[in-house]
Prior knowledge:
Blueprint: H1 6-13, H2 15-35, H3 39-67, H4 70-96, H5 101-121, H6 142-172, H7 177-201, H8 207-227, H9 231-245, H10 248-254, H11 256-294, H12 299-323
Helix pairs in contact: 1-2, 1-3, 1-11, 2-3, 2-5, 3-11, 4-7, 4-10, 6-7, 6-9, 6-11, 6-12, 7-9, 8-9, 8-10, 8-12, 11-12
Amino acid sequence: MSTATSGAAAISLGTGRLLTVAVWVASVALAGYAATPTIGLLLGAAAMLGFASGYFDAGINTHVALRHGARAMGAIHAGYGIGATLGPLLMTGLLNTDQSWRWGFWLLAAFQVVVAVLFVSNEDGWTSSPPRQDTGRRRLPPVAWWALLVFALYAAVEIGLGQWAFTLLTEGRNMSDSVGGLAVTGLYGGMTAARLLLGGYGHRLSPVALSTAGTVVALAGVAALWWAPTGWIAVAATVVTGFALGPIFPLQTMLTPRRVGAAGTATLVGYQIAAASVGAIAVPGAIGLLVDRYEVAVIAPALTAAAALLVVADLMLRRAGNRAPASS
């Protein structure tokens, strides 16, 4: 919900103030995780963290899309991959040393406080707000609807594979838990590596062509995972799919101003992240229902179908973008 309203919030408060408030709220929510004695308060802290994360995610993506290029967009999304890797390692390390899980959330809350202080100390760099959208142009153009579908299907493939690859490889292909875990680690490692490369060399490549290539290679990777006759091919296919998925989200976000203009960017970025959340929830959940009915063999064909739809949606998005009038 917060991502869908982030555009209006950024225009009203200003990007810097929105991000600062979001980080402070996230700090309080994480501290609530660490301190809460009841499940009710824990759920309240989770809701607070979700709202703060939605505003922060949409706000910083909008800022980079409007004022920076592919290198900056790749860098911030590589940071997401690094954090997604370090967070579980932090919790695992604490639990392996017989420490309470609460210490992990206290540490994360402290880190968020440091980030909030950095935002406040660098306030001059975040004073701008997204342009206010003309009230007569609030309806989304066709290109925006295709963009929403691309984000939903991208998240469906990424999260679906991340959640179900381990089950597919261990229960469906009789691999060991260590190999299954290695494959999932490789999925996110490949994704992060691709985004780091985007941060270094993204300005030299066409963002539209690179994103399309990512969808096609991701489809090939998931199809190879479905076909894989040996364990090492299945693991390699998972890693390649992660590498191919890596640039798609940041590049599609960066292309938003080109599609709807600067004034529509804040709103559409928020909608795109909301669409990604819907895809990340709906498709992996649907796969779970299919697994319950048809066993784990259904995972790979379901993911392949989602990846094929992503390729088609990306093609339609390119065509709609070519037909759309030039945006300022």
